[in-house]
Design the sequence.
């Protein structure tokens, strides 16, 4: 699905989402009433300081106006890898965007990520992974790290990595692998109007607690994260 | 315990705290940073909770998966502490490593009053368990914000071998405040990553001076990316942690709005600067080229003069 | 990775009361040693996981030397090795044994 198809299918009653240099902003009419804030990164654009500051601005402006959900669409590159971005403190800009989304989510504007294309590394952390529920479209191809880069660092051939990836979802790219680790909550069906699936999700929106580690355990993608985090939490509460 | 023994112990601790932060292991940093004998570790190495994924790559495990988490005291007051070991797999976030920090932050959130010190030393996501590591970082970022919203102060201390790269840089950006030494590089993409993806003309990773002045602690302090610059000793980091704990304000929408303005202002003022030296010059530092060679005490005096820190806007 | 185990009878119990010590880091050319006071006083066990396969005889000699020098009765040493040289192994084992000689905190 193209971005236009996705927006039309999400908001049959209309939307005013603009794509300006790969940065998405606007809103869409929800069938259940109200308008969702829509932000995101399109056209496989790299997320640098200039893009991130615009996105966080939209999010913060929305926090004190209403309680409609925030939709974060993602078809991005990785973070922009440049001297200028790092010189200006890219880590702060990306963290600020994530903080704004998480804060909004915790304060009445539930954040939903929609991964419909590529995304990677720091861009993924600052957008799709800073939401309460992350939805994938079947065509999405996220990659925390691409296999050629992995091959370079691990000094293993791509063929060997592909072979290893058959036995575990823990390192290789792809929507299914991310879903198994608990990062992607659900995958929507492109043949059904997205508005219907969004309605269903909004009607059954989980509370703001982060349960991705439990999901990763349930789906067999992260065998230890949930138990370790919970044990440390309990030990820490007891130690005090 | 006799009085003379106590005195001897105190002065030996003071001596130990002159140790280099950069050269120390995660365990040594924790032991020396906090009050002597005060640290209780959670899921320590004897529990052997190793990474379940390194086997697949025929790589050696470490019993604590490269991170120490626990409870200790700082000048008598309880603090949670997490310390990454930068020498084990570059301090990278794997599934177990990350989950320990997540659990610690969630406990801090539940309690609401005990601060958390994160001793960063990391290259980012551990490639062999990239998906689990990336997600662990996302969970930690969320847990930091939840803890801060509950009133917890989360302080990052950065000055290790591996620096604070990748997702580690994003977590650092979520903290209430940061103390950094010259060696404490903070950045998302590492020098080699930029060079590999964009070419040596964009960034020459072997030009160490370029790396330090673009990502190093001095630049981060002058830019407002870190609140405090410290010399490379455990004692200096201890004093910085105490100072920051006493000065952090509550976290809320005003904090985020102030940060939005702070970062917009930065882009406007320095967005066209090609190099750190140009930024420092634009900041009004007369002899900006001399900054990298400036001893720590002189640099701290200069930084305090030219730039207020950003502790109400993070 | 290769697993190696060496069990030795010891002349005497390791001094001190400390239950646990850990020293070193798993990195190229380095290793971590975890020492635990969990065995009968007349025994010592060294369990090794090493990234450098095929050095069983070298380990055998290094550990026999260590047991002779320190008589660490009652201690189990668990080692994760990133391919350290024998002198580094000896140093870490000695450091771990000395830490165990301290009194429990």
Sequence:
């Amino acid at each position: 699905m193209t971005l236009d198809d996705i927006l039309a299918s999400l908001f049959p009653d209309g939307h005013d989402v603009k794509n300006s240099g790969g940065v998405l902003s606007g809103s869409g009419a929800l069938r259940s009433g109200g308008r969702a804030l829509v932000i995101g990164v399109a056209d496989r654009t790299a997320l640098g300081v200039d893009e991130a500051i615009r996105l966080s601005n939209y999010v913060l402006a929305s926090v004190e106006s209403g309680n409609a959900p925030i939709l974060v669409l993602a078809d991005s590159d990785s973070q922009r890898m440049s001297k200028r971005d790092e010189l200006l403190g890219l880590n702060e800009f990306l963290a600020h965007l994530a903080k704004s989304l998480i804060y909004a989510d915790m304060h009445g504007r539930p954040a939903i990520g929609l991964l419909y294309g590529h995304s990677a590394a720091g861009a993924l952390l600052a957008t799709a992974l800073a939401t309460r529920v992350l939805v994938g479209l079947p065509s999405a191809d996220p990659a925390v790290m691409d296999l050629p880069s992995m091959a370079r660092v691990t000094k293993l051939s791509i063929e060997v990595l592909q072979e290893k990836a058959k036995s575990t979802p823990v390192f290789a790219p792809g929507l299914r692998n991310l879903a198994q680790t608990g990062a992607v909550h659900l995958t929507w069906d492109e043949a059904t109007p997205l508005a219907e699936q969004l309605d269903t999700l909004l009607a059954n929106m989980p509370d703001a607690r982060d349960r991705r580690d439990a999901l990763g355990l349930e789906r067999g993608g992260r065998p230890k994260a949930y138990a370790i985090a919970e044990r440390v939490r309990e030990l820490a509460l007891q130690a005090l | 315990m006799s009085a003379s023994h106590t005195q001897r112990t105190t002065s030996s601790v003071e001596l130990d705290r002159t140790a280099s932060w950069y050269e120390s292991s995660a365990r040594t940093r924790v032991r020396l940073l906090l009050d002597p004998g005060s640290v209780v570790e959670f899921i320590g190495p004897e529990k052997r909770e190793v990474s379940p994924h390194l086997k697949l790559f025929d790589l050696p495990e470490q019993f604590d998966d490269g991170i120490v988490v626990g409870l200790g005291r700082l000048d008598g007051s309880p603090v949670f502490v997490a310390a990454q070991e930068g020498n084990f797999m570059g301090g990278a976030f794997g599934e177990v490593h990350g989950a320990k920090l997540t659990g610690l932050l969630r406990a801090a959130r539940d309690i609401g009053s005990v601060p958390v010190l994160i001793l960063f030393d990391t290259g980012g996501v551990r490639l062999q368990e990239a998906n689990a590591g990336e997600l662990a970082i996302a969970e930690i970022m969320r847990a930091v914000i939840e803890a801060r919203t509950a009133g917890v102060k989360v302080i990052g201390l950065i000055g290790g071998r591996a620096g604070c790269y990748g997702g580690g840089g994003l977590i650092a950006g979520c903290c209430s405040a940061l103390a950094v030494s010259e060696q404490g590089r903070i950045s998302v993409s590492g020098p080699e990553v930029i060079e590999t993806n964009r070419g040596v003309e964009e960034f020459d990773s072997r030009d160490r001076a370029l790396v330090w002045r673009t990502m190093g602690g001095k630049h981060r302090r002058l830019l407002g990316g870190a609140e405090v610059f410290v010399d490379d000793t455990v004692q200096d980091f201890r004093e910085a942690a105490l100072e920051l704990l006493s000065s952090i304000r509550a976290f809320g929408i005003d904090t985020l709005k102030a940060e939005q303005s702070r970062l917009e202002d930065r882009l406007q003022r320095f967005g066209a600067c090609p190099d750190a030296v140009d930024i420092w010059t634009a900041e009004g530092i007369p002899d900006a080229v001399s900054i990298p060679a400036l001893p720590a005490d002189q640099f701290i005096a200069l930084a305090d003069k030219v730039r207020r820190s950003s502790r109400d806007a993070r | 990775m290769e697993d190696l185990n060496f069990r030795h009878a010891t002349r005497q119990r390791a001094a001190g009361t400390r239950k646990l010590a850990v020293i070193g880091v798993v990195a190229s050319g380095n290793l971590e040693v975890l020492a635990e006071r969990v065995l009968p006083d007349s025994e010592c066990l060294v369990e090794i996981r090493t990234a450098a396969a095929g050095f069983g005889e070298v380990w055998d000699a290094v550990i026999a030397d260590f047991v002779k020098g320190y008589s660490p009765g009652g201690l189990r040493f668990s080692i994760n090795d990133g391919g350290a040289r024998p002198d580094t192994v000896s140093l870490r084992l000695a450091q771990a044994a000395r830490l165990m000689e301290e009194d429990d905190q």
Q: What stands out?
A: Chain C has a mean pLDDT of 95. The radius of gyration of chain C is 13 Å. Helices of chain C lie at 56-70, 86-100. Chains C and A do not touch (no CB pair under 8 Å).
